[in-house]
Amino acid sequence: MPEANIKISAGRLIDPRKQIDDLLDLYIADGRIAAIGAAPDGFSADIELDASGLVVIPGLIDLCARLREPGQEHKASIDSECQAAAAGGITTLCCPPDTDPVIDTPAVVELIRHRTQQAGAARVVTLGALTRGLRGEQLSEMAALQQAGCVGVSNALKPLASTLVERRAFEYAATFGLTVFLYADDAALSANGCIHEGQLSTRLGLPGIPQAAETVAVARDLALIQQTGVRAHFCRLTTQHAVRMVARAQFDGVPVSADVAIPHLYLSELDTIEFGADYHFIPPLRTQEDREGLRKGLISGTLSALCSDHQPHEPDAKLAPFPATEPGASGLDSLLSLTLKLVEEHQNLLPDAIARVTSGPARILNIPYGDLAVGRAADICIFAPDESWRLDEASMNSQGKNTPFRGWEMPGRVRYTLRDGQIIFTGETS
Amino acid sequence: MSVSNLQIRKDGRLRHFLSTEGLNRGLLTEILDTAESFAGVTEQSVKKVPLLRGKTIVNLFFEASTRTRTTFELAAKRLSADVLNINIGASATVKGETLLDTLRNLQAMHVDMFVVRHADSGTAHFIARHVLPHVSVINAGDGRHAHPTQAMLDMFTIRREKGADFGRLSVAIVGDIANSRVARSQIHALNLLNTGDVRIIAPRTLIPSHIESLGVRVFHDLREGLRDADVVIMLRLQRERMKGTVIPSEHEYYQLYGLTEEKLSMARPDITVMHPGPINRGVEMDSQVADGPRSVILQQVTYGIAVRMAVMSMAMQQKHSQDGDA
Q1: Average pLDDT of B114-138?
Q2: For B170-198, b where at least 16 C-beta lie within 10 A, e where not — what string?
């Protein structure tokens, strides 16, 4: 019922972009935010959601979520993950192009859109492939991908054949005002590594990925960003040194942004001591110093977004010797809670943290969501800040149950999620 | 569950032998003492003891091996166990059956022990976490991580040559530390046995980062590193590494790190020369040194059988109760 008029009453309403943090009512009509504070003329609510004691924020935007469809439906589906996102207060998911087939034709974009609409939960925006088949050699048809709805282009985790291909790809993307989403990795340096190169890789005899694999790539990419003037975004940085390099470039006026994945803010290489496959990440968990550097970068705003880097797997994907396991963790269920936990640990302001999962990613993706402006699509997350829950297989909604946070006590529980003014999730009240 | 808990039973006895790291001096000494008692057996004309009669041991090798597999097989047979050798190319599991399925199928045949070699670091730990409570796992080499029975036969050799007081010894390990599971296991074992001075000698390209954290002193000059050493262990340098970005040439490696009589003169005159084999003669060491009076390379192989008998019998000791993972 898209036309339902909804009143969300008496909640603590936080909109980081508009710097609102107050007890205010919010009114929704025609799927959009109609007013904040006083009701618009002639408004009568079909549904009233009592948000007293709850926090009302823009729906979360997750910059990187693998939905596993098309191509790996044994791990998850667009339906399962869009529902899980809704349950986690997330209203927009950004899907990178490394699906199978790769998102390098409008047909794949269309398929994902169709399946997302069928799911009727969170919205999905897509990144198109930077090169055909992500093979790093030939440019993709970026204009066609943009027309089909891609909000940016990326080569996902795949390397480009040369700096010349990179330069041309940047120039071509800049032609259409497309943002390039970069995974900073020098493929020759990271080679077949599966863990941060350091104390633990030496101890466990696992092939390491040096910090320089990231910083060399950041330096190279920054030079080409400056050369071409393309708008660029570094995805999921892992080293404090790379954060400093990006901060310096931003200071110099280079059009570049960056984000960090949640696991890298809580875990480090030391967590892999027992060959635990749940701690297998690419890019890898780094040192404790890096973890602190990433947290600082997030607080200072150099890293303007926080993503789940959601990678759901079937159980077998993690049941093998460490190097043979598939990297990544299922993260949609814990994105909001682990963001709130940062507020606790740093005595940070809640609005600043919320910005990293709402207005921050919206600006990076250049999409009209992530705030509570009047006239905006009504994407809203309402959560109980004082309730906590325990992360385990039963409490996870994602089809992938692979997580290093199993057993953690999670602050904040989602009560309602609305996308385009539709209630797409209603949580249990306790 | 910590690695040490995985290897050691609640009562302190050995459950699995996955890595020398995480064990304790007492257990390592027990392995050496037990091996000493078996060393006599292997020299008798009837080389069998009935300790593991009725037990089934599977040598599960996902990586080629001649010496290690053979000595494990001989060790098991001398303990009167039934032995099954299974050689699976590492690719076989990739093609179809998962490692866990292979394991479950074998367990269904009532196996009592797995001796495992695999190209991936952490494989023995992975298997140990998933076997039935009565099954023990011996690591016969996993990736670059560990090769604990090799390290223990090296400790056994050192003890036979130099006596039980490791505290007064300087032991130098030379060569491809970065890619060597043997070196890692040796370093942990030497440190657990309180060795006075553990040195590694190699160019920077063959030394992994943070190696000092394992408790070693690093040298890049062979002569300097050998000064007054009591034991030198030469590691095998795989030939494919010698024409890449790691070492410029066999020639230069031999010039700088090849063990010759002349370089040995830096060490103590009674230095013991060891090598886990197989040797690249004229690369890691001169034939004159390999076959010389200070070399104990062939003794190492012989001792390998006794040490593996010791480890197998300790892990399979009649249990007082069916205690599983601690």
Answers
A1: 95
A2: bbbbbbbbbbbbbbbbbbbbbbbbebebb
User: Which tokens in the block code for residue A200?
Assistant: 């633990």
Closest partner residue to A198 among B121, B146, B210, by Cβ?
B210
A366: left (phi > 0), else alpha (psi -120 to 50), else beta?
Answer: left
Kindly report the CATH number that applies to the domain delimited by B148-300.
Answer: 3.40.50.1370
- Residue A349: the pLDDT is 82
CA separation for the pair B189, B209 (Å, rounded): 20
CATH 3.40.50.2300 correct for B3-147+303-315: no
Neighbours of B89 (CB within 10 A): 12
Chain A environment of B241 (Cβ under 8 Å): none
Neighboring chain B residues of A323 at a CB cutoff of 8 Å:
120-122, 143
The closest CB to that of B99, out of A199, A210, A320, belongs to A320
Per-residue pLDDT band at B243 (split at 50, 70, 90): low
Distances (CA, A) of A307 to A259, A264, B117: 7, 10, 39
Identify the burial level of B227 via C-beta atoms within 10 angstroms of its C-beta, where 0-12 means exposed, 13-18 middle and 19 or more buried: middle
CA A12 from centre of chain: 24
Interface of B with A in 95-134 (CB under 8 A): 98-100, 118, 120-123, 125-126, 130
Contact (CB<8Å) A203/B98: no
* Cα dihedral: B287, B289, B291, B295 (round 10): -150
Is B142 within 8 Å of A316 when comparing Cβ atoms?
no
Is A198 an 8 Å CB contact of chain B? yes
Scanning B189-248 for CB atoms below 8 A from A yields 208-211, 213-214
- The ranges assigned to domains in chain B are 3-147+303-315, 148-300
To the nearest whole Å, the CA of B14 is away from the closest chain A CA by 18
Distance from CA of B218 to the nearest CA of A (A): 14
Q: Say whether B228 sits in a helix, a strand or coil.
A: coil
**Contact (Cβ atoms closer than 8 angstroms) between residue B314 and residue B32:** no
Set A25, A104, A185, A309: catalytic member: A309
How many interchain CB pairs under 8 A, A with B? Answer: 78
Chunked mean pLDDT (size 10), chain A, 430 residues: 85 96 97 96 96 98 98 97 98 98 98 98 98 98 98 97 98 98 97 95 96 98 98 98 98 97 97 95 98 96 98 96 97 98 87 96 98 97 97 97 98 98 90
Q: Which residues of chain B lie closer than 8 angstroms to A279, CB-CB?
A: none
Element (H, E) at A223: helix A211-228
Task: State yes or no: is A309 an active-site residue.
Answer: yes
Residue window 233-272, chain A: list those with CB within 8 Å of chain B: none
Flag whether pLDDT at B242 surpasses 70. no
Domains B3-147+303-315 and B148-300 share a fold: yes
Output phi, psi for B90, to 5 deg.
-55, -25
The reported pLDDT for the residue numbered B102 is 87
Instruction: Tell me the domains of chain A and their CATH numbers.
Output: 6-56+379-401+410-426 (2.30.40.10), 59-365 (3.20.20.140)
Hey, what's the torsion of the CAs at A150, A154, A155, A156, to 10 degrees?
A: -90
Chain B residues with CB under 8 Å of A199 CB are 209-210, 213
The reported pLDDT for the residue numbered A347 is 76
- Report how far residue A51's alpha carbon sits from residue A56's, in angstroms, rounded to the nearest whole number: 8
* Residue pair A93/A123 in contact by the 8 Å Cβ criterion: yes
Which residues of chain A are within 8 Å of residue B143 when distances are taken between CB atoms?
Answer: 205-206, 321, 323
A423 part of contact set with chain B, CB < 8 Å? no
* pLDDT band for position B96 (cuts 50, 70, 90): low
